[in-house]
Design goal:
2 domains, Alpha-Beta Plaits, four-stranded mixed sheet, Alpha-lytic protease prodomain-like, alpha+beta, CDF_Transporter, Protein p34, 4 strands
Length: 296
């Protein structure tokens, strides 16, 4: 089992434990805010399962039907997560509205908060692991899952503050009001997850700092060529696709041109792990006198 798959399975296990703890906290107190927190955890469990499936599909090698691989499966998972987050927020808003109509006194609030606090700490630790390892592995599904869990941590802390204030002041209306704030925050989180994933589905270029590094690799390792132009890049899950035209002297042999391409590809693989490089070789009269100047 590879690292991505291990993390995805870990998310399922942690999600199930946290959901059970938060459901217990709601059962102990009857708090609408704690119920909203538990509802969000059902989304965590669902998105963890979606991430597990996406990671497995993305790991399938390229085939005749999918010559560029299955990397984008992770983006579909992240979009699904965003949709599920927004649906959970609507359920929470409904529960909060009913709570506003008939505020109730909470039962065993301190016990419930203690259980919820333990669940929140567990979520926070796992969110840190997912985001850190997901970025290192270039996994959009794991990073999206980790960011959503961190949002859950923040909202759980807000819920705890709201319940404590209601307990200290006797203003039980604060409980459903806090649930509404949680729902609003979850909606914002869902939108961010979806928008970042859609950019991957639309073949957005790599970040500027990575683009600068790619240009440097080409310029420093294409000795013998004249220039490189029409550079295009995109991310697809953990893979980075790099395409460009390489201009060489007209009298250069195919063998020598191929040697240059091999050298650039190897340097690119070293600098940008899991890169997929496509180079179109052109004779010197195709020069555009712009783009990347090759360093001698």
């Amino acid at each position: 089992m590879n690292t991505k798959l291990q993390l995805a399975v870990g998310s399922l296990i942690i999600g199930a434990v946290v959901l059970a703890l938060k459901t217990l906290a709601w059962w102990l107190t009857g708090s609408v805010a704690l119920l909203s927190d538990a509802l969000e955890s059902t989304v965590n469990l669902g998105t963890a399962f979606a991430a597990l499936v996406a990671v497995q599909v993305a790991a399938i090698p390229a085939d005749s039907q999918h010559p560029f691989g299955h990397h984008k499966a992770e983006y579909f998972s992240a979009v699904l997560e965003g949709v599920m987050i927004c649906v959970a927020a609507l359920f929470i808003l409904n529960e909060a509205w009913e709570g506003l109509q008939a505020p109730t006194v909470l039962e065993a609030p301190l016990e419930g908060l203690a259980v919820n606090g333990f669940a929140t700490a567990l979520n926070g630790l796992w969110a840190f692991v997912l985001v850190r390892r997901g970025r290192a592995l270039k996994s959009p599904a794991l990073v999206a899952d980790g960011k959503h869990l961190w949002t859950d941590v923040v909202t759980s802390a807000g819920v705890a503050v709201g319940v404590l204030l209601a307990l200290m002041t006797g203003w039980w209306l604060l409980d459903p009001l806090m649930a509404m704030l949680v729902a609003a925050n979850i909606l914002w989180s869902g939108w961010r997850v979806m928008s970042s994933s859609l950019s991957g589905l639309l073949d957005e270029s790599v970040p500027e700092n990575e683009l600068v590094r790619i240009r440097e690799v080409i310029a420093e390792n294409a000795d013998g060529a004249v220039e490189a132009h029409d550079l295009r890049t995109r991310h697809a899950g953990s893979a980075t696709f790099v395409e460009f035209h390489l201009v060489v002297p007209g009298e250069m042999t195919v063998f020598d041109a191929h040697e240059i391409c091999d050298r650039v590809e190897q340097a690119m693989h070293d600098a940008v792990p899991e890169s997929r490089v496509t180079i179109h070789v052109e004779p010197e009269h195709k020069s555009k006198h712009q783009g990347i100047v090759v360093l001698d």
